[in-house]
Write a structure and sequence with these properties.
DUF305_CopM-like, DUF305 domain-containing protein, signal, single chain, Ferritin-like, mainly alpha, about 0% strand
Length: about 200
Amino acid sequence: MRRLTGFRALAALVVGALALTGCGAAAPGTAPPPVSTVVETNEFNATDVMFLQMAVPHHRSGLEIVRLAKDREVRAEVKTLAAAIEVTQLSEVDSMTKWLADWGKPEVAGDDPQLHAGHGGDHSTSPDAIAELAATGPAEFEKAFLNLLIGHQHNAVEIAKLEKEGGINPQAKDLATRIFDSRTAQISQMLGYIG
């Protein structure tokens, strides 16, 4: 068996990660994933904007979390899940920041702690929690990583619910549905790793 190196190894990792997280090509004998039929528009409301302004920093803190697993001793399936989350969330951030720019809106709403009071509060993972995870020793890291990421992805589900219930922009609502479904599946997968 030939050893994969460089780009081919990365491509194999991403394909495997996408398969594990329910993204990408369908497994043999199953239906392919649906092609998006969302018609893109620039119509949006305050909920669409708030969803994106909450999700962009949330995704970026999620990227900080999953990148901590790259150089740590964790099970292969945990490392693969973290890599898949990174690829997905980078792509989602690109889409969200583009939409906000197209709408003439800033990437973040501001620093007022009361700003998200009407949306169930601030759903972000604190920098202190991420720093604490980064300082966790090897023996405890995987469990601490999974617990923090489960909580983080639960908050993503809560943010997505807001958009699903009150947004009007079709592409933002479609993204919210994909976030809701994928993060719910990831939570279940990670609970299985802990259990």
